[in-house]
Specification:
The protein is mostly helical. The protein contains nine helices and five strands. The chain has helices at residues 14-55, 62-65, 158-178, 182-211, 218-236, 244-267, 269-296, 306-311, 320-346, and strands spanning 73-74, 79-84, 89-94, 96-97, 121-123. It has a three-stranded antiparallel sheet with strand order 2-3-5, with no helix packed on it. A hairpin with a 4-residue loop joins strand 2 (79-84) and strand 3 (89-94). Helix 4 runs parallel beside helix 6 (244-267) and helix 7 (269-296) packs antiparallel against helix 9 (320-346). The chain is globular and about 75 Å long. The termini are far apart. 27% of the residues are buried.
Amino acid sequence: MQYKTLIPTSTPSPSNHQFSYNTFFLSLDFEMNRNNIAMTTKMSRLLLKQLGPRLFSTSSTLSTIGESSMIPMGNTIGMTRVLPMHVRNWSTHTSSNSDTVKKENNDTKAISSYWGVAPPSLTKADGSAWRWNCFRPWEAYQADTSIDVTKHHKPTTWNDKIAFWIVQALKYPTHFYFQKKHIHHAVLLETVAAVPGMVGGMLLHTKSLRRFEQSGGWIKALLEEAENERMHLMTFIDVYEPKWHERALVFAVQGVFFNAYFLAYLASPKLAHRITGYLEEEAVNSYTEFLNDLEKGVMEDIPAPAIAIDYWCLPQNSTLKDVVRVIRADEAHHRDLNHYASDIQCQGHELKEYPAPIGYH
């Protein structure tokens, strides 16, 4: 048997090998970069899809707020309750239906729950359905507009002066940015004004748990203040819808202010309450300017939002001027409450020693 030796006719040069290697690695690197870019793009789209509607969406949130709370539930126990309010009566009942839940109107979505939690169906005195899920009829009230809106706590101690100048330093950039855009200013103001009550109430709550002691009602009073400020915001977004850049500004300001106020309250509650008192004084002044421009005709005095009419028990023909007036009264009450809380602590006492003015507004 004969064997033939195969000898290549030509031998590839080292330069050809080098060219092939370089081409291979360049194509591999390009493919990896393209995959990375595609993955980054997908992640960015997913993140924007999740966070975009929460942070920068300009869609109205009123559809959520104004949805009817008449949610029929199956297998629930029927009940009826009627309680008096300041100037209105309301009733609540839960409907007892068959296993198949029926929707009563096109705007109502039926929720089927294993736990049997039945949201009440609320009605007004005239028998019409209660529109709001963000507050209940027994939380509505008539604002005390007779309160003195010109009161000012003159800073005398170092604690007062520090709080006063902190607020003054925050005031001028805000006024320069918004100028005569009162509704824009009010929206940003309320997103900040609702923070101190929540932070103070939360810290007093945890303190009460740690020390196994009561709080004198101050937890509820401060949380009540935060909720009232939030309702101011819910009213103004019915009048004006913030743009995406204003939502971004609120996101940044709220993040900084929340953490700063949290640390301030931990370090010195009396300083934190004094700061809030001066913030509320500036809020009263801002709403006074807002009201003056409405009375002078600089701004259009549009009809009051429906949510404001139900929350403050206003007449049906109320206007924006009436809404600003009652909100200013609320801010004046918050001013007094926080200055009072700071005075208690400045005089060497604790808040729990003096009953909180719950429902003061």
